[in-house]
Amino acid sequence: MNRVRLLVFNAALGVLDYRVPPGMTIEFGSIVMAPLGPRQVLGIVWEPERLNAQEVPESKLRALLDVMPVPSIPERLRRLIEWTADYYCAPLSAVARMALGSMAALRGGGTTTEYRLTGAEPARMTPRRAAALDALQGEQASIRELAELASVSEGVLRGMVGAGLLEPVTVDLDRPYPAAWADFAAPDLSAEQRAAADTFVTAVRDGEFAPFLLDGVTGSGKTECYFEAVAEALQLERQILVLLPEIALTENFLRRFEHRFGVPPLLWHSSLKSSERRRAWRAIVRGEAQVVVGARSALFLPYARLGLIVVDEAHEVSFKQDDGVRYNARDVAVMRAKFESIPVILASATPALESMQLAEAGVYRKLELPSRFGGAQLPDIQILDLRSEAPERGRWLAPRLVEQMKDRLAKGEQSLLFLNRRGYAPLTLCRHCGYRFQCPNCTAWLVEHRFSKRLACHHCGHEVPVPEACPECGTGDCLVACGPGVERIADEVAEILPEARTALVTSDTMNTPEAIGDFVAMAEGRAIDVIIGTQLVTKGYHFPELTLVGVVDADLGLEGGDLRAAERTYQQVAQVAGRAGRGEKPGVVLIQTRHPEAAVIEALANGDRDAFYAAETEARRDAGAPPFGRWAAIIVSSEDQAEALAAARAIGGTAPNLPDMMVLGPAPAPLSLLRGRHRFRLLINARRSAELQKTLREWLAPLEFPRGVRVNIDIDPYSFV
Ligand SMILES: Nc1ncnc2c1ncn2[C@@H]1O[C@H](COP(=O)(O)OP(=O)(O)OP(=O)(O)O)[C@@H](O)[C@H]1O
Ligand SMILES: [Zn+2]
Predict the structure, then answer these.
(1) From the CB of 379, is ligand 1 less than 6 Å away?
(2) 20 to 30 A Cα–Cα from 159, which one of 136, 172, 638, 676?
(3) Looking at its record, which EC class is this enzyme (predicted)?
(4) What is the CATH classification number for the domain harbouring 71?
């Protein structure tokens, strides 16, 4: 090759042609550095016929500068990147960027210097040194990262190096990870688990594309089953990717994995330290990382020898990314498996309707685990009608639920209260004038957080201290909290069960791996009587002494009426109910609701999952909703409301008139102001036969908008706000 076409990491530039200087060896997928004006730009060498670009005459081509000393992006990943960009109407370069680690990872191996405490006592102790000594126990990282960890300046740490309190350590960037043992602690599987596991093992051995839906009730041992497939892939020296919906779940997973395979897997997520990120990425591309566990972002990495993908809790909506490239990691995982010719396992106790449909249609092979492991029974689910069994005034827990909690406490068993609302109260107002605290940047109420004594916006992060007086009328001590959040439920539990040991589990309290680890250890060690949590505790956890689950407000998710409201409610309640009675003692679930007649609540009460899926399937079919029809959203935003509206109208005004596609809107988005941007939405409902993406691209391409306007396309949207 003496001339190459590059995909460069700049959406505005996209594709550029270069000359290959003599002596440089290049192949498709090579990651290279190229000159761009006075600067340099990173790019991937791509098949020229697959990228549109202006033909540049030979004489005008500039020469590439350098090839990065890392393996090339494999062809099967290049095809996946193209597919993703095409399907989600996203810039190719934005998708390709997700395959790369850091610049440092691309520059090559070698060594770096990190620092750690020497253990020496300081001759001169300052408060900042004391804080640093405390924060840096057991840590080893660059000065910059340590400074961040300890919240002190780099100067303080350099002073500590000088004083012999910190010492430099030379670290090999590519030092290997300890190896996992396929049969470190293999469990005895039940017959039904064995059948599923054997099918997976065969599929891993065959090494062909094979999508599976592992549909097993809560506590059936889905993890143990897919671990057998992981073990097989390990034996074949193939890499394994396990996607989890939330980083909060990884702590629990890591422990189980280590228990089964002897070492922890490799973690990949957005808050890795840069040195860890570099090491992990390099091990992944060289094929040395055996098992990678991560959130969405682990999906596009250039695995050298991928042999299996597992998507656990595959129904979770957090697999859908709602900024940048708006892709659904569950769906792209299946496509990746297809391009890699490997099996992919979607595991869930409450599969998404879309996945069920694909299983029904024979696209996915469904494997079922209909009973809990070890003879544990599914919990007894009871409805608590809040209209006839109202909580006391100013309280949120009905007497029957309180009685049951007292009973569990007396027996030394655990209870879990679930309410999917962070903070103390979702709305705060002035008793005197009715003033409501609203976010200045978003269409949203500020949520009171008692622990941090602040009012916070859950959309943009805006925060103010709780004021002493109403900013509107000036009356002091006049603020009333309206409605419950988990913090308020925790207060109520403290009042009714003062002797109970409680744990509040939300993203506010469980924000570090240590916090999560401590929580799990305490819950397992029976040092917690009552867990109060958001959706963070609904899945993945296994606490044998937990025998009571109270759903504080099952109607919460049904409000707002988005397309998947019923399904989401079903999944959330079924998942949290699934935490009860996983050990030897049976579990009871009390669902507080004002709508016991709603189809989803009835299905939950009767444990009739099939009825729920059947009714929901019919409703979707009638509405032409996914999976029977397709949705896409166009979101138009600008800091200037008039500008956003004009752009949205221009889009609406040029909507194509097609028999298999319906365009709704533009209308102000439910979150009409978000992070200071005014937002309008259009919703497109298309038949499956429609060429949705092509139509969207052709529709929007000729339109031009002022610089401040952003137009985002969301294919298969999950969020309608
Ligand atoms: N064959 C087995 N041998 C020993 N323990 C098992 C076996 N199968 C499952 N278990 C244990 O039973 C518990 C439940 O299993 P697991 O967490 O895998 O279920 P799950 O199907 O993933 O549940 P959920 O969907 O509720 O998270 C775990 O503690 C697990 O270790
Ligand atoms: Zn806000």
Answers:
(1) no
(2) 172
(3) isomerase
(4) 3.40.1440.60
